[in-house]
Design a protein that fits this description.
By secondary structure, the chain is of the alpha/beta class. The protein is built from 21 helices and 27 strands. Helix 9 links the parallel strand 11 and strand 12. Helix 12 crosses helix 13 and helix 17 packs across helix 18.
């Protein structure tokens, strides 16, 4: 930090008290950097101190007297830094050492690679004027220290544990008796350098023993007391055999690894700390750090963990880390908990067969015939939810209603499509007890109920030339409508489809709704973001409705007005199709059923035309049925002589 020349005379006297004799103003300016470096070397950290203060004021700001400050040779200062950097670099630790005493996060030379290259797991701290450094890796545990005047030292938790058991410890009655009880041979446990403690109380499982050194050693007694060597390195058991294997079997415990080795599988491993008591899915969970410090090349992981709560947790953690796409699982017999249990109770052949028959985890969104076998057999035997008939003899030949399907109704405005649909819903409610949630904002809810009441009672609501319904009949109609129809209203001026479906979802749960009606589509919010096209919006609208229908096992009807009104050569309007609806051909292509309602003013009839039935023969055919409107009863009546099946 450079001092300003204008402040030189102000601080000269205070600097002289600390044996820094500066002859002129330029000396104060040029040596200001060295003075502040002296402050750092004296143990103080760099502070945002106003350089216009006198030295005593600086001391007061820090809260204690400053030690005498000496002029520092810049070359010597840089030399201290470089010496520290050189010594650290020899240990593979790369640092810039910007300031003398500091802490920084950097890459670890021991676990990177294979550990994530973006991580900075090694914490490095320099002290004592840049002459000492200590470090610790929070990922792999690598730690140590150095002094520029002495040799590098490492903390006890560095890495390898030496082991040198005597011959009696490698083969004795204590070991033989234990492993015979586990159906494991002497050849198998010796292949893993398993040995006993001198007092023959502990069975010792060295992790990756090479040249009488091991990453760590785990101990157990026959009565299930456990411990492991202090400051051991986290690693995978049997790593030398599994690290390059294309298939690796993950079990829960060293005994299970030995059990699989006994039946010919050398590619089994286990984590050092066993199964977790709870799931965390944390990347830096120390229990799973060996998966990063000891990478595997396997393209197939078979999970054969214990069949208990902790084993299920381990199973989920490993699935999370490896991914379902490469994971398989083993189904153990009901009377067995793990691999060794299978070996002891059912023998080597059964254990081997279980591994051979390991099953792949299902990939989300991908299914096989096995997932649908029972459903297809039910279809063959007639054991499935069948479509329902509306209740009109000829109409039922070409149009039925199937749960889980999406229907589009269209027609020229004022041709009666909403009224016809309402009548069909009333008929379905009468015959099958269905309930409906209605989003129909073109008319007020009270006017909609009025129309439904007319259909139920088959009398006019209003005064006219025909006898209107009585108040008692109206009350009867209202009670019936209340049991079968619910009306969706929102505070939003134009709600979006998600809002409508959210309300419909609640109605399904609370009231057992069987059908949802959206009449018309253009009363649903169609605002789009950015470059989102209208056809894309319609595609997603239909997809949401279809997904809702299948998820909640309901039928969804949407009434959509055409924008194109085709005419014949003589100028008569023709019956529109789904391709004439605004927006896109998605209306026809994605729908399960498309129905056109078209009015013939010459004979005062309407045609119900099925333009599309996805599963023809199951819930309809392409065809046409005509209805006449009975003005006295305010309902449509099927014309018996006008049924036409276009498939004939």
């Amino acid at each position: 930090m450079l001092m300003k020349t204008s402040h030189a005379s102000q601080v000269k006297n205070t600097l002289e008290k600390y044996a820094v004799f500066l002859t002129d103003k330029s000396d104060v300016a040029s040596h200001g950097y060295e003075i502040m470096e002296s402050l750092l070397l004296s143990g103080e950290r760099e502070l945002p101190i106003d350089t216009s203060l006198g030295w005593s004021q600086v001391s007061a700001h820090l809260g204690h007297d400053l030690p005498p400050i000496r002029k520092i040779n810049k070359k010597r200062l840089r030399g201290v830094k470089m010496l520290l950097q050189d010594r650290l670099q020899k240990e593979g630790i790369i640092t810039n050492v910007h300031t003398m005493d500091h802490t920084e996060k950097i890459k670890c030379p021991k676990c990177q690679p294979p550990h994530n290259s973006k991580d900075r797991p090694l914490s490095l701290t320099t002290t004592d004027n840049g002459t000492k450094a200590v470090w610790n890796c929070h990922h792999c545990g690598y730690s140590g220290s150095l002094n520029t005047d002495n040799a590098v030292s490492f903390r006890p938790n560095a890495f390898k544990h030496s082991w040198n058991p005597e011959g009696n410890n490698l083969q004795n009655k204590f070991l033989d008796d234990y492993f015979i009880g586990r159906s494991i041979s002497r050849e198998t446990y010796q292949a893993f350098n398993v040995h006993s403690s001198n007092d023959e109380k502990w069975i010792c499982f060295p992790y990756n023993p090479i040249n009488k050194e091991a990453d760590s050693i785990k101990y157990r007694t026959p009565d299930k007391q456990f411990k492991q060597s202090k400051n051991g390195k986290k690693s995978l058991y049997n790593y030398e055999r599994v690290k390059n294997a294309q298939t690796v079997i993950f079990v829960e415990g060293e005994i299970d690894v030995l059990s699989l080795f006994e039946v010919g599988y050398e590619n089994a491993t286990t984590l050092q700390d066993g199964a977790p008591a709870k799931i965390s899915f944390k990347e830096n969970d120390k229990r799973f750090q060996a998966l990063q410090s000891h990478p595997l090349k396997a393209s197939k992981i078979i999970l054969f963990v214990d069949k208990d709560g902790a084993g299920e947790n381990l199973n989920k953690e490993l699935l999370h880390r490896f991914g379902k796409d490469i994971c398989w699982y083993v189904e153990t017999p009901d009377d067995c908990k793990d691999a060794n249990d299978v070996l002891c109770k059912h023998g080597a052949a059964t254990l081997k067969k279980l591994v051979e028959k390991a099953k792949p985890y299902p990939v989300d969104g991908l299914y096989s015939v096995g997932n649908y076998r029972d459903e297809v057999l039910d279809l063959y035997n007639g054991n499935y939810t069948k479509p329902i008939e509306v209740g009109y003899p000829h109409l039922d030949n070409i149009y039925k209603v199937m749960k889980g399907t999406f229907h589009v109704w269209t027609g020229i405005p004022n041709h009666g499509k909403s009224t016809v649909l309402d009548q069909f819903l009333v008929q379905i409610a009468r015959k099958h007890g269905w309930k409906f949630a209605m989003f129909s904002p073109e008319h007020s809810t009270s006017m909609h109920i009025r129309r439904l009441a007319q259909i139920v009672i088959e009398k006019p609501f209003d005064k006219g030339i025909n006898d209107r319904m009585t108040e008692e009949e109206l009350r009867t109609a209202l009670n019936w409508v209340r049991e079968h129809f619910y009306f969706i209203e929102t505070r939003e001026h134009i709600p979006n489809i998600q809002k409508i479906l959210d309300i419909a979802k609640q109605s399904c749960k609370k009231f057992g709704i069987n059908g949802i009606v959206i009449d018309p589509y253009n009363e649903v919010d169609a605002r789009r973001q950015g470059n989102y096209r209208e056809d894309e919006h319609i595609r997603d609208f239909i997809s949401n409705c279809k997904r809702f229908a299948r998820t909640h096992d309901v039928t969804v009807w949407v009434v959509a007005h055409p924008t194109k009104l085709p005419k014949s050569d003589n100028g008569v309007y023709l019956a529109p199709t789904a391709y004439d609806i605004a927006g896109a051909s998605h209306w026809h292509n994605q729908s399960d059923a498309v129905v056109t309602v078209h009015r013939d003013f010459d004979d005062d009839s309407i045609s119900i035309i099925t333009r599309k039935i996805r599963e023809q023969g199951l819930y309809g055919h392409i065809g046409e049925v005509k209805f006449n409107y009975n003005k006295k009863k305010r309902v449509f009546e099927e014309k018996i002589t006008t049924y036409e099946d276009w498939n004939d």
